[in-house]
Fold this sequence. Notes:
The complex is a heterodimer. Chain A is mainly beta. Chain A contains no helices and ten strands. The model of chain A has no long low-confidence stretch (mean pLDDT 96). The A-B interface holds A 35, 44-47, 50, 59, 61-62, 95, 103-113 and B 32, 34, 36, 42-46, 49-50, 55, 87, 89, 91-101.
Amino acid sequence: EEQLLESGGTLVRPGGSLRLSCAASRFTFSSYAMNWVRQAPGKGLEWVSTISGSGTTTYYADSVKGRFTISRDNPKKTLYLQMNSLRAEDTAVYYCAQSVAVAGSWFDPWGQGTLVTVSS
Amino acid sequence: DIQMTQSPSSLSASVGDRVTITCRASESISNYLNWYQQKPGKAPHLLISTTTTLHTGVPSRFSGSGLGTDFTLTITDLQPDDFATYFCQQSFSKPDTFGQGTRLEIK
């Protein structure tokens, strides 16, 4: 089964930047859309962004549009989330998750998550 | 955006019980409804996709139903491993949205 491993989460000051990574093990990484979903402490799940298998199509939640950029490197089997102009409300565990399509699909599997804390 | 409303937000039950969690969409989402289970400190994992399809390895005591705006997740013969938080998610249109979660606790 596919395994996903996130990294890059840390403490960052408001207004700062951070890049998260998600390494995949599957040989056919490029065949799958990839997603970022976040969960603020003690809260529910919030979809953040989706990228197609080729990387040519992307979607963003309004709450991050213009500040976050999703990208992927298929030969390296790695997904990224560049996070700029970070705010306190971006504090969350960020999960990467795979889907079979950019829409009309489901998230499976998920990585273990990486914690981003935005605080001064 | 499509709003997903789950009920109840929390639920107490005993081992062996049958429980039902409902999820209502603010507009029709056909059958584009998925269910996830999450345990404390762990990532969510997929239980059911497109309303009724059990994910590989999910016990048959879990089942899903519904169409349009109203959906249910039913768990029969509750086992100790089932006590967790459950989320519904619509994938009919972007942005994908989740219900607020239902915490299933041991009575």
